[in-house]
């Protein structure tokens, strides 16, 4: 009985290792195909530049405006909280650090995705 249980564990460990290697292999093939430009739809460099422009540059205005409004809300709420402790002068630093470090990547990713 004990040997069967041990063999089941070894079999499960081997299956997990094979699955991990298979996923790594598929990921590696995907990377090679992406780098060599073997896309299924006949990808080209001009199409890549056009997509980067439309996703990146054309979304910049939306990202800046949304960041501005989020910063205003953070400043308004942060001022009322910091005023209780007498440190109103730290509102600008708090908003800048919060937007750049915490909310900047999240908001940018959400706006790019949406």
UniProtKB/TrEMBL annotation:
Signal peptide: none annotated. The keyword Glycosyltransferase does not apply. It holds the Pfam family MlaE. The chain crosses the membrane at residues 12-32, 52-76. GO terms for cellular component: ATP-binding cassette (ABC) transporter complex. Keywords: Membrane, Transmembrane, Transmembrane helix. The keyword Signal does not apply. GO terms for molecular function: phospholipid transporter activity. This is Membrane protein.
